[in-house]
Write a structure and sequence with these properties.
The complex is a heterodimer of chains A (85) and B (877). Chain A is α+β, with helices and mostly antiparallel strands and 85 residues long. Chain A contains 2 helices and 4 strands, in the order βαβαββ. In chain A, a hairpin with a 3-residue loop joins β3 (64-71) and β4 (75-84). The longest helix of chain A has 11 residues, at 27-37. Chain A is globular, with a radius of gyration of 15 Å. Chain B folds into 6 domains: 19-83 and 211-290, DNA Excision Repair, Uvrb, Chain A (Irregular); 87-205, no CATH class; 319-491, Barwin-like endoglucanases; 498-638, Orthogonal Bundle (Enzyme I, Chain A, domain 2), CATH 1.10.274; 644-796, RNA polymerase Rpb1 funnel domain (Topoisomerase I, Chain A, domain 4, Orthogonal Bundle), CATH 1.10.132.30; 827-872, no CATH class. Chain B has 27 helices and 32 strands. The chains are: A alpha+beta (85), B alpha+beta (877). Chains A and B meet through β4 of A and loops of B.
């Protein structure tokens, strides 16, 4: 497949108001989260590497993404998702 | 009882059964269509052959030696004289036929393509992904080929005529031809179409052998007349065997092709309906009575089928069902149970040193003398029925370790349920009160959670049978524990209808209530002492309604809120409200304000909410009991009724209303004139026609509202309908407007009524008449009566409402079913996460805030405000 030409005018999902903040978190923090919930990585909700936002933040398989959403009930809600193939 | 740990299913394999396997699993060939001989014994090699299992007591299965009940049954088989198609796979056959060569049976793809697809299918299988998409593509690609790449044969178009006929080039393909073609397919080609050649070869779809289900799954029943009645499946099998035999005879006799084909088709029909008796295009096989037969598919499919009806469906003992009726004298957590039901339903007691005397007394009373006992289970497990005659003697025999089935009696905890069980308050634990007559009685205040009324509703009752079950029911499901709804964090149980009107009448009036009346009002609440009288009149002390109501409020209750009758003034005058709509309760004394829906109504009651959250369920229960009883006394003291006279409007007001309606009519005419002249200003995003419709609708609804205002001015707080509407007991001011002033525009799908005849709604109007009267504006009021055309339009609008409700309930019911199926195993864990059965996290914090909605204050952060107020002493809006 031909690489897409980068024009600098592509749509960036993260700039959209409806797309919550996504960030990749480091190993130490992952371990902290896993310990907090007493889980292994695979028990987390998943996100595809091919997900538009995952692509944009250049997440790799095995990374954990923190998603900070606006919430009706709690103002801010934090979610974690494991990046899968 | 041993409860085995649930096992995880590793693999399920689906495939087709080959004729060989059919014969292998068969215990006998079935050749005669007869079932029983003249003596009533099963005929050998008949449909009821004892090798297929036994259903008659006394006989033994010739295959396994088991008696009826022990023998699971065994399959037999019928050798079909000519092959037939299995309807369930007719579409697959079509696809396969179109994708394979008519002479060599090869899949019409190049070797490279085949390799590619097999590769793709294998990868998908390995990853546990569905392969449907690839297979569809294979069939699509293979169909494109005009000639066979392997033998050069030109392919013909194959037409499929539902349900089981295939036509190639105007020439009908017989099942034998089809089978011959499919047999030629190589294992490699079969893999390309996504099938497993070892478990499912395509030619196995064409049946040459038909399995005969065991007798145990098609038992015949003996009618009272001694006549045997066979199962539907047996009937169908008889048909198949008969035709099969006739076919064979005809073929052996060398009958003409035409007859053979007819018989073949008939055989196909019978086998088709044996498998599925609801195939479109096939007339369903019928019983002699005209009832369609229930064949294999019908046994499995649908709500009453094996899966939804028998496997997921549950039915129980220790339950009762009857009509419900109201009894305001019961407490809210009680249920009145008919004596007949109480005598039938039991609780099993284990006889212990502590209760032996009590148990003996139950046994002595026998089954007819409620509360007695119906059965005794002796230490050896034998059940003995207690009768009137043996009761005394049995009572003396009762020993420790025995069990006695005691009849249910007052204060037993039972589960009470009304379908549809849409939320958890649809099943609550009640305490029994045994009463005469034949209906379940319940306090009308618990109608809202069950969504019950008394127009013939029936409810079910279940008796928990173990101590654990009873404890759980009492602690978790008791009505008192369910006053608050987890749906919105407010009380779902509370006053309805007359409860609200009654307390409103009592607390909103300036009535002076003398001592006798005051005590009578409070008699049912067991209050025998009155507070300091409000004043004296003619040297006699009197009390106000507010004081009376205060007597049932618990001490220590402090509340301040705006009542339902609050008019939402721009500046709230608070305690000095002229409508008496600002409620202040201090230390359980109602100081100002009227009690209405906001105070005690189900769904809205602020008082009950407070009682549940800051006091306890028992106090809240007691308050509901007292409030409902007091309100009924209160409403009876005054009398409360509504009749045609209450819709009376003085002539000058009526004239005013007519003027208003005439004015609106003129305005509509003007709009129409402007529209016709092309002068109407178009609204953005609307066509000119839509604009006109919207303007007319707006004008007419304004007119209706203004007539309502005029009527409202003449119907004051002395009118019972107004009292009900304002206090929130029942009805609205709109209802009253429609009764007294003007019914207003009738609509279908939010638009004026347009359908009917060409260019007009009814023959009473000119074609193209856009006027208000011609499109369903009802000028009349219900009291004045509707004109014939108005009446008709009203019926149209009313019908839409009925259809809407019917559609909505079925749709939301299915949505609910899907949601429940998807979410039923999710659980909030102790750490606040929501997880499924594999402990996978679904939500990191329940509802994102981890708050139990039941404990929230009507889903609003009210607690914060309360805290601020208690600290600063100020109310911040």
């Amino acid at each position: 497949m031909k690489e897409k030409e980068i024009t600098g005018r592509e749509f960036k999902p993260l700039d959209h108001v409806m797309v919550p903040r996504h960030e990749i978190i480091d190993e130490a923090e992952i371990n902290k989260i896993l310990a907090e919930y007493e889980i292994v990585k695979e028990q987390m909700p998943k996100i595809r590497v091919s997900d538009p936002v995952a692509l944009e933040i250049k997440a790799r398989v095995g990374d954990v993404v923190r998603i900070i959403r606006k919430s009706q009930t709690a103002d801010k809600a934090v979610f974690y998702r494991l990046v899968i193939a | 009882m041993v409860i085995a740990a649930p096992k995880r299913i590793k693999q399920i394999k689906f495939g087709l059964i080959s004729p060989k396997e059919f014969r292998k699993m068969s215990v006998t060939r079935v050749i005669t269509a007869d079932t029983y001989d003249d003596d009533g014994f099963p005929i050998e090699m008949g449909l009821m052959d004892t090798r297929l299992g036994v259903i008659d007591p006394g006989l033994r299965c010739k295959t396994c030696g088991g008696r009826a009940g022990e023998c699971p049954g065994h399959f037999g088989h019928i050798e079909l004289v000519a092959p037939v198609i299995h309807v369930g796979f007719a579409k697959l056959i079509r696809k396969v036929l179109r994708a394979t060569c008519r002479t060599c049976g090869a899949l019409l793809l190049t070797i490279d393509q085949k390799k590619k697809y097999v590769e793709q299918i294998k990868t998908l299988r390995r990853m546990g992904q569905p392969i449907e998409e690839i297979v569809t593509e294979v069939f699509k690609e293979a169909r494109k080929a005009g000639t066979c790449q392997y033998c050069g044969e030109v392919q013909q178009e194959i037409k499929f005529e539902k349900p089981t006929t295939y036509v190639e080039n105007e020439h009908k393909l017989m099942p034998t031809d089809i089978r011959a073609r499919l047999e030629k397919m190589t294992d490699e080609d079969i893999e390309v179409i996504g099938m497993d050649p070892h478990n499912a070869r395509p030619e196995w779809i064409i049946l040459t052998v038909l399995p005969v289900p065991p007798v145990t799954m098609r038992p015949s029943i003996t009618l009272e007349s001694g006549q045997r009645s066979e199962d539907d499946l047996t009937h169908k099998l008889v048909d198949i065997i008969r035709i099969n035999q006739r076919f064979q005879e005809n073929r052996e006799a060398g009958a003409p092709q035409l007859i053979i084909e007819d018989l073949w088709e008939l055989l196909q029909y019978h086998v088709t309906t044996f498998i599925d008796n609801a195939v479109s295009g096939v007339p369903p096989a019928r019983h002699r009575s005209g009832r369609p037969l229930k064949t294999l598919s019908q046994r499995l499919k649908g709500k009453e089928g094996r899966f939804r009806g028998s496997l997921s469906g549950k039915r129980v003992n220790f339950s009762a069902r009857t009509v419900i009726s109201p009894d305001p004298n019961l407490r809210i957590f009680e249920v009145g149970v008919p004596l007949e039901i109480a005598k039938e339903l039991t609780i099993t007691l284990n006889v212990t040193p502590r209760n032996i005397d009590e148990v003996k007394e139950y046994v002595r009373r026998g089954p007819e003398n409620h509360p007695g006992a119906n059965y005794i289970v002796r230490a050896d497990g034998r059940r003995v029925k207690i009768t009137d005659k043996n009761s005394t003697e049995m009572a003396d025999l009762v020993e420790l370790g025995w069990k006695v089935d005691r009849q249910i009696k007052d204060k037993d905890v039972v589960l009470f349920n009304r379908q549809p069980s849409l939320h958890r308050m649809s099943i609550m634990a009640h305490e029994i009160k045994v009463l005469p007559n034949k209906t379940f009685r319940l306090n009308p205040a618990v109608c809202p959670p069950y969504n019950a009324d008394f127009d013939g509703d029936e409810m079910n009752m279940h008796i928990p049978q173990t101590e654990e079950a009873r404890a759980e029911a009492k602690i978790l499901m008791h009505v008192a524990e369910n006053i608050l709804s987890p749906r919105f964090g407010g009380p779902i149980i509370g006053g309805i209808h007359d409860h609200i009107s009654g307390l409103f009448l009592l607390t909103n009036s300036k009535d002076k209530i003398n001592k006798v009346d005051a005590l009578e009002l409070l008699a049912k609440s067991e209050i025998r002492e009155l507070p300091e009288p409000a004043g004296k009149e003619n040297k006699r002390p009197y009390w106000t309604g507010k004081q009376i109501f205060s007597q049932i409020l618990p001490k220590g209750l402090n509340l301040e809120f705006k009542a339902e009758i609050c008019e939402q003034c721009d500046i709230c005058k608070g305690v000095d409200c002229e409508h008496d709509a600002y409620v202040v309760i201090k230390d359980g004394v109602l100081e100002t304000g009227s009690i209405d829906e906001k105070a005690i109504g189900a769904f809205k009651s602020v008082i009950l909410d407070k009682l549940m959250k800051e006091f306890n369920p028992q106090i809240a229960c007691k308050f509901i009991d007292d409030a409902t009883r007091l309100s009924i006394r209160g409403i009876m003291r005054k009398g409360f009724s509504f009749g045609m006279d209450d819709e009376y409007i003085p002539p000058e007001a009526q004239n005013h209303i007519n003027e208003e309606l005439d004015k609106a009519g003129d305005k509509v005419e003007k709009l129409i004139a402007a529209y016709k002249a092309g002068e109407l200003e178009q609204l953005p995003g609307r066509t000119i026609n839509e604009t006109l419709e919207m303007e007319i609708m707006k004008e007419l609804s304004k007119a209706r509202d203004s007539t309502g205002d005029i009527a409202g001015r003449h119907l004051g707080m002395d009118n019972s309908a107004v009292i009900m509407a304002k206090s929130g007991a029942r009805g609205s001011m709109l209802n009253l407007t429609q009764m007294a002033a003007c019914v207003g525009q009738q609509a279908v799908r939010g638009e004026r009524i347009k359908r009917g005849y060409a260019g007009r709604t009814l023959p009473h109007f000119d074609r193209g008449d856009l006027g208000s009267q011609a499109h369903g504006f009802v000028r009349a009021s219900y009291k004045s009566g509707l004109s014939p055309t108005e009446y008709f339009f009203h019926a149209i609008g009313g019908r839409e409402g009925l259809v809407d409700t019917a559609v909505r309930t079925s749709q939301s019911g299915y949505l609910q079913r899907r949601l429940v199926n998807a979410l039923q195993d999710l659980e909030v864990q102790f750490d606040g996460t929501v997880r499924d059965t594999r402990k996978m996290i679904i939500q990191f914090k329940y509802g994102e805030d981890g708050i139990n909605p039941m404990n929230s204050d009507f889903s609003k952060p009210d607690a914060v405000k309360r805290i601020i107020k208690s600290v600063t002493g100020k109310v911040k809006e």
